[in-house]
Structures are given as structure tokens and as C-alpha cells.
Amino acid sequence: SGDSAPLNEAMAVLQHHDAVSGTSRQHVANDYARQLSAGWGPCEVLVSNALARLSGSKLDFAFCRELNVSVCPPSRRPAPFQVVIYNPLGRKVDQMVRLPVSEGTFLVKDPNGKTVPSDVLVLPSPPGQEQTSELLFSASAPALGFSIYSVTRIPSRHPKARTQQYDPKKSN
Amino acid sequence: RQVLAIENEFIQATFDPDTGLLMGIRNKEQNLVLPMSQGFFWYQASTGDKESSQASGAYIFRPERPQPLPVSRWAQVRLVKTALVQEVHQNFSAWCSQVVRLYPGQRHLELEWTVGPIPVQDDWGKEVISRFDTPLKTEGQFFTDSNGREVLRRSRNYRPTWRLNQTEPVAGNYYPVNTRIYITDGDVQLTVLTDRSQGGSSLRDGSLELMVHRRLLADDERGVGEALLESESGQWVRGRHLVLLDSARNAAAGHRLLAEREVLAPQLVLALGRGVPYRPG
Predict the structure, then answer these.
(1) What's the rounded mean pLDDT across residues A44-55?
(2) How far is B17 from chain A (nearest CA, A)?
(3) What ipTM was reported for this prediction?
(4) Mutate which of B237, B268, B276 to test chain A, going by most A C-beta atoms within 10 A?
(5) CA A54 to CA A26: how far, in whole Å?
(6) Do residue B272 and residue A85 have CB atoms under 8 angstroms apart?
(7) pLDDT of A166 strictly over 70
(8) By three-state DSSP, how is residue A171 classified?
(9) What residues of B are in contact with residue A118 (Cβ under 8 Å)?
């Protein structure tokens, strides 16, 4: 079961000026980070439960806490995956989704099963380090709601598959 | 030696071929052009001087001298252009880089900066800023949204409710920035939205700066009892500045909507497998 109370409590502790302004000692700053991290764990369960209930399908949801530094193990696996975009704003938004992926070509479909244009960018990396690629596609999410996009890796010998048009009759 | 440019239907950003630095933004919808230079600088942190023993620390920002030093006068650049994104990757030094990014349909320029770990082997504490220099005649004024409330007008070396004796020309003009800072000459407005609270100022007309990272070697003796110095190699910070060029008349509509989107950004959750098709209906 999920629980938002630990994050509520961690946030309440972080109202202290030391946490707001960064004037804490290092070991206290480390403890603030620990409390936030521990509080977020049960919230992930809560969000997963809510999404499963709203979408009508029980899935093992994965959260990428380090997406800002291109770290997201679930999207780097070769298996197909789904991307849920939740929009907390009271109006529809279009958002460019960026996910680290292993090399390849990808087919991205929107909630209606239509193929969405996508790109894979190879990011510069320091010499000796593994190259990082990012999958880009434009996603749309309704006001105070969410959209689910599906991403499938395609064998690179069929590069044109990326631009294939979706045929609703052949779809599941 | 061609001028590098990235553009979409609304904005064009150009880069100096000699330095690799951003040198101008054009709002194509309103045909506004603003020459500018954007780069990273650092203030040498004071450890106390003959005027005052006050050192720069966790509570106190006090640079040794008012002029910051450039992290680098030029950047190594790499241009990426695809149908879905245009990016200029700027590498200023081993500890400072930036990606200037434009997506189709976007009315703002995105600057994603990565700073750290700040080197301190030279025994100088460093307070790193991103600075935008433009020819706008701003007459000593700039605007910040201090404390998450309304945007307030800030005047250099001035306080509206008392006669100020300015003793700190840099820090005494720094203000909290929670979501945005802007400068305007009455016709054109340059707005920078932040993804977190930062300190910011306009120390010269047409100039705007935001502090992005700091690493200090002395305690400011205000209670914390230790220097703002992370153990081992130090912190590595990544953040974003969203830049809007607009007419002063239309600017508020743009930065208010964009700030809402930034604060209440969409959340991403992944699930393995193909799943069951989901339709919002």
C-alpha cells in the first residue's frame, strides 16, 4: 500500500530554514536528503496504485529519479515499454519526452495507436565513457489527466519502420 | 566561420563563430532582435579583508572583488539538428557546460547548464553565475518574483523604505529569484525563468545574472560552523534557464504561462511491456 504521509513529514521537516537556504551542516544536509528519498518511496506506490486504477490495468510502474542526468534503466532495456505522462495542469500540454535508450530504432505510438514521429540523439560523452543515446518524441497530455505512449525497439535492419504509417486494421 | 544558428517558427538564436557563445535572440513573431552575450563567470569568495572580517559562507554572499572572472572566454561547440530538436552543446571547461535547446513550437530558448564539481585546489572559494549581457537601457532597474509572491521592481543601490548606504556593490544588489527575473527598456523584455530558487541581480544596465552554484572554503561564522564545502570531489549540479524575448506589452502572458508549466511540469512514469491500450475516454 502506498502512503504520502512520510513525504508530508519530510517536507514539513524541510520547512526549516537550514534546508530551505542550504545553511545546514553537511551531515544534516545528508539527513534531509535521506528523509526526502525515504518519503518518496511509498509515494511511488501511491502514484502507481492511482494510475493502475485510473487506467484499468495493473502494471509494474517504474520511476526514473535521475532522468535529468539521462539515467533510466527501464528505458534502456531492449523490451517494449510504456510511458505514462501525467499532467497536473488544468490545461492540455504538449511535452517533448526524452528518455535514455540503448542504440536502435524505435516505434512510438500514441494512446490511439497512431505512430508518433521520434528521433534518437547520440549525446556527446567524455573519451572512454559509453555513449548515451536519447529517444525523443512529442507527447500530449489532457488537463489534469494522463496519456500512455508505447515504445518498441525495432531491429535496425528495417530503419524505415520508424516512419511507417499506422494501419488500425492490423493493430491489437 | 559561419554564424551558428538554431531556430524554429518562433525564435532564432545565433552563436558567435569565434567564441561559441550565444550572441543574439530573435523573436520571429514580433520581429524583435536582441544582441546579447551569455556566459559563465565566477566570483572569488571573500575570506575577509581590511574593511570587514566577514567571509563568504553558507549564509553570506560576499565576493572579494566586484568583477567576476570568466569560466572561459570561449566554448567548444557541437551542433545537433534533427526534426524534433536543435541543440548547441557548449563546453566551457572541465566543470562547466551548457546545452542551448529549441524544440518545434516552443516560444522560449532552453539553457540546460551543468556546473561542478567546482575546483578549489587554487584555494579560492568560487560562486558561479550565468550572465546575460544586452544593450537594453534598463536604467538601474530589474524585476524579480521574490518569495513566490508578486514580481517586484528592484533598483540598483536603492531601498524604497530607507536611505541605503551601499557597502557591498554586488551582494547588496542580489535578490532571491524563485521563478523568474527580467529586465526591460520599456519596449523589449528579456525574461529568464529558473527551475529552482536562485540568487539574481542586474549589476549593470542591460545585464542580468543568476547564481547557479557555489563552493566555499571559509565559514561565515553565522552559526553553521563549517564551510560550504562538500566532502570529496564536491557537487555536480544541473539545471535549466528558460529565456523569453518579448515586447514589454506581451511579456507577462508568456512568462506566466511558461512558469506554470515549469512548476507543474508533467510527470513521467514507465511500465515495461506492451500493456493494454488506454484511451482517455
Answers:
(1) 90
(2) 20
(3) 0.88
(4) B268
(5) 42
(6) no
(7) no
(8) coil
(9) 84
